Amino acid sequence: MTHKTRRPTQSDLSLEAHWNYVNRIEGECIMKVLADQLYWFCELGSCLSAELIDRVHSPYTWTVRQVVEHCVDAERIFGDRMLRIAAGDETNLPCWDENAYADARFGLGNVGHLISELGHLRQANLVLLGRIVPAAWDRVGTVDSHPITPRGIAWLAAAHVHHHFEIIEKRCDISPQRGPM
After folding, report:
1. What pTM does this model have?
2. Is residue 9 part of a domain?
């Protein structure tokens, strides 16, 4: 593990809600955590039947397909934010309306394609994180007027998927392998 991929500190994340998610993630190197989750993507996708993906499981309001699509959208947005902040973009980046994205229902196709897209986006984000200089990991930007670093966003991306995939497992009563053995 290098300094740049270490667990976040208070200078990386400012919102308590983010810490609630990130503190549930095990590991010390975000590159390993993000890469290991690729295995979980594939395993989860192979456990989801057509019957499960378009059902709304109370008390939730989204289908499993919409949750996976939400994870795809979020991964894309996390990548954009990491890039912009690492590059020194001082724009206060806006929050995003996840419900508007879910309501757009772009992902009406095969859920396997959504899982594949999520994997490609995660791989692209890993390549991005691998090429930014160590100092850029500590660069502070703002999202919705809250300070955050690329490191904080990377840990948040892992925590976000972890949160939603755990809910999918519970909703669908499945137990896919979460990482390489």
Report:
1. 0.94
2. no
